[in-house]
Write a structure and sequence with these properties.
Elements (H helix, E strand, L loop, with lengths): L14 E6 L4 E2 L20 E2 L1 H10 L4 H8 E5 L6 E5 L10 E2 L2 E2 L7 H5 L2 E6 L8 E7 L19 E2 H7 L3 H20 L8 H11 L2 H9 L1 H6 L4 H9 L1 H17 L8 H10 L1 H13 L15 H5 L3 H13 L1
Antiparallel strand pairs: 1-9, 2-10, 3-5, 4-5, 6-7, 8-9
Bound molecules: iron/sulfur cluster (2 copies).
């Protein structure tokens, strides 16, 4: 069996290296009566996917940047510079969202907490063009949910697919899978795409995790001057975070992989590429000086030509110019 690509999983996870499918049968009980109740939240190592952040910031009535600053820490997803976030803990490793009664955000808890002690992984076999959705198991000393004495009379053996339903995780996977696919695609593209620049890593972070900032970016004259967005889509992404997240994935496929997902305003592209580059470079440099977080990849304020340059903007501008000259 192919070795799973687990590079997008937290480095510290005690995952068991075997691929599980939806049919895998499990017997597991987690309820307030288990001897280890909340032990997992007291040793929290929870990676957040973009939809997790969306749900948590809505639950806490915060903006994405407020939430990210208050409740998360950065971690490098794959050793290649792509930055994700984990839930912040206190000095005892307790999750900041835990209170005396348990999880304070239970209805909107992240997908990793729902899955635990299992997890989702995207697998892309080298010969395949599509990815698969598989699962893994986490084995940690503190979790006693597999032990018979913690079973309730109603605890039955079920499939992993059924377990996912009981945890309400399907909706999370629905909106996070495109993000996993972006990671897998970036990984499998390898040298043909090249190592992403700091600016594209910042945009990747903004368009997936920092959605309120991404929304401001879409409203900016800088974005409007380059992308030809119809008014219906524009309205949708201003009023609906899920539509905004989906648009973020679309935008990233264009920025990172050159897929034509959003129409460009060719005149504007030409004009910008020729006239504004220095201005935005200077502005970007100034903004970097004032980044709120130390890691520059966390500064998603880059809205200039450098980012779009990753998507061969200059080539597009050149092509548009030639078209005009005909
Ligand atoms: S978010 Fe909730 S379930 Fe997840 S680690 Fe924190 S307290 Fe526990
Ligand atoms: S059984 Fe496992 S998941 Fe449930 S509270 Fe205990 S440690 Fe956490």
């Amino acid at each position: 069996m192919a070795k799973p690509d687990v590079s997008h999983l937290p480095y510290e996870s005690s995952f068991v290296p075997e691929i599980l499918t939806e049919d895998h049968r499990i017997k597991f009980a987690c309820h307030p009566g288990v001897s280890c109740f909340n032990a997992c939240c007291k040793q929290a190592d929870v990676m957040l996917a973009p939809y997790d952040v969306l749900r948590l910031k809505q639950h806490l009535k915060m903006t994405s940047d407020e939430f990210l600053k208050q409740y998360t820490v950065p971690w490098e997803i794959d050793g290649d510079g792509i930055v994700g976030v984990k839930l912040k803990t206190n000095e005892d490793k307790h999750c900041l969202l835990m209170n005396d009664k348990g999880c304070s955000v239970y209805n909107d808890r992240p997908s990793a907490c729902r899955y635990y002690p299992f997890g989702l992984m995207g697998v892309k076999h080298s010969e395949a063009t599509t990815d698969e959705q598989n699962y893994f198991r986490i084995e940690e000393e503190h979790c006693k949910g597999h032990e018979k004495e913690n079973f309730l009379p109603e605890t039955k053996e079920i499939t992993l697919g059924e377990y996912r339903k009981t945890q309400g995780v399907e909706e999370f996977d629905k909106y996070n899978l495109d993000w996993i696919r972006l990671m897998l695609k970036k990984k499998s593209a390898g040298p043909s795409v090249g190592a992403p620049s700091t600016e594209s890593l910042q945009v990747l972070f903004m368009a997936t995790y920092d959605l309120d900032r991404f929304k401001r970016f879409i409203q900016s004259t800088n974005f409007q001057a380059v992308y030809d967005l119809d008014s219906k889509t524009f309205e949708e992404i201003q009023n609906d975070d899920i539509a905004l997240l989906k648009f973020g994935y679309r935008f990233l496929r264009q920025v990172l992989f050159g897929e034509k997902t959003i129409e460009l305003k060719n005149d504007a592209v030409t004009k910008r590429a020729e006239e504004r580059k220095e201005y935005w470079k200077a502005r970007h440099d100034a903004e970097m000086e004032y980044a709120n977080l130390n890691d520059p990849r966390y500064d998603p304020k880059v809205m200039g030509d450098e980012v779009m340059g990753d998507n061969k903007l200059a080539e597009k501008a050149e092509a548009a110019k030639k078209e005009q000259e005909k």
